[in-house]
From TrEMBL:
Domain EamA: residue ranges: 7-139, 153-281
Pfam families: EamA (PF00892)
Keywords, comma-separated and alphabetical: Cell membrane, Membrane, Transmembrane, Transmembrane helix
Name of protein: EamA-like transporter family protein
Entry-linked PANTHER family: INNER MEMBRANE TRANSPORTER, S-ADENOSYLMETHIONINE_S-ADENOSYLHOMOCYSTEINE TRANSPORTER
Residue stretches in coiled coil: none
Length: 289
């Protein structure tokens, strides 16, 4: 099997797992608060990544270097990003939070202008307008000429998560740490912060075995295994666009799972808005590839 085929299989595995996370978030949040889910998922993912770092023989590197970067990066991811993302999922239907979160790639393109000195083209702006038209359709639930949001705070959280995620990756553009080592270090910084927030807030509460398994699933698959598979895909592929376009398979599967498992009725506005968002992203990626 050549490397590109392996990369596509890794990428498909990551996308398959990411397709389940909107459903996993909604199921887990029926029992736990966003902060409780966050703490449990980060703990599980931190343990998984720590085991892999040791298995790969990178424990000494992980312990002895890279902590200056981790000191601020860990506060952004996992702490700030996932707290805001889970808050969005807690307030919005999963279909809306998921669709709005897909605009992070466009947010990255726009933020790269002041942060990295990149230039915006007319196509960048046009792709952004198409995608953010989709955001407006979803946020207003189809009442595009009525400036009224069903849950303004939830929409704000979802869009803020895209800005945080894009900003995190842009600021890490010069990060020389190995991806898995860097992620484990970030979670090592973030976990004590989340523990203090949890103790200061709701505290540790037992919500039953189902809640525990839901939190473990999020930690293993959204934050852990999917990240590892995607890193393998990007590392092995000859051209990034070959795996980057796989992400467009995720939204339809996510919507189907939300309908079947969670029982969400899919709004027509979500479908229209998601088509516009994916069209904008596709236009942007086709230009970059």
């Amino acid at each position: 099997m050549n490397q590109d085929r392996q990369a596509i299989l890794y990428g498909l595995g990551a996308v398959a797992l990411w397709s389940t996370v909107a459903t996993a978030f909604k199921v887990a949040l029926t029992w736990m608060s966003p902060l409780e889910l966050m703490w449990l998922a980060v703990l599980v993912s931190w343990l998984l990544m720590g085991i892999l770092v040791v298995y790969q023989g990178n424990a000494r590197i992980a312990l002895n270097s890279g902590w200056k970067t981790a000191a601020w990066a860990g506060l952004m991811n996992p702490v700030a990003y996932y707290l805001v993302l889970f808050a969005a999922y807690d307030r919005l239907p999963g279909q809306e939070a998921m669709a709005l979160n897909y605009t992070w790639a466009l947010a990255m393109a726009f933020l790269a202008v002041p942060l990295l000195g990149h230039r915006l083209t007319v196509k960048d702006v046009a792709a952004g307008l198409v995608a953010y038209a989709g955001v407006w359709v979803i946020a207003t639930r189809g009442n595009v000429f009525d400036v009224h949001f069903a849950d303004p705070l939830g929409v704000a959280f979802a869009l803020a998560s895209t800005l945080l995620w894009a900003l995190y990756w842009l600021l890490n553009a010069r990060d020389k740490r190995q991806p898995l080592v860097g992620q484990w270090q970030n979670f090592t910084v973030g976990l004590p912060v989340l523990t203090l927030l949890l103790l200061w807030g709701p505290g540790f509460q037992w919500h039953g075995g189902s809640a525990l398994m839901a939190g473990i699933y999020v930690g293993l698959f959204e934050m852990g295994i999917a990240f590892i598979l995607w890193q393998l895909a990007v590392h092995k592929v000859s051209r990034t666009a070959k795996v980057a376009n796989l992400i467009f398979l995720s939204p339809p599967v996510s919507l189907l799972l939300l309908f079947v498992v969670v029982g969400e009725s899919i709004y027509p506005s979500t479908l229209v808005g998601l088509v516009l968002i994916l069209a904008g992203l596709g236009w942007q990626q086709r230009r970059q590839s």
